[in-house]
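Q: Convert this sequence to structure tokens.
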Amino acid sequence: MQGYVALSREIPFKDLGGGVQRRVLSYNEEMMSVEVAFETGAVGAAHTHPHTQCSYVLSGRFSYCIEDESVILCPGDSIVVPSGLPHGTTCLEKGVLLDIFTPMRKDFL
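A:
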């Protein structure tokens, strides 16, 4: 059942540097859930990818930018990033995002 069940207590975070850590949770070919933990001031640099992404704020505060528009996201807020649009985030207050990708991100495995 690899990929289908995610017991967070058994999945370590991968240090991406710059105050950002990621752990892949459950996934299949169509969808993937990923936790991304940020220290205050950490940046998820602007980038693009062919996946549709939904980010949900579990904790903290984030300045999230899609193309040229920015918004402040707080716990309980979410945002959808369509495929191919440039986006990035800056962590304003230490926190965690839950990112859902469709299709799954093979590059994260």
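The CA atoms of residues 62 and 73 lie 5 Å apart.
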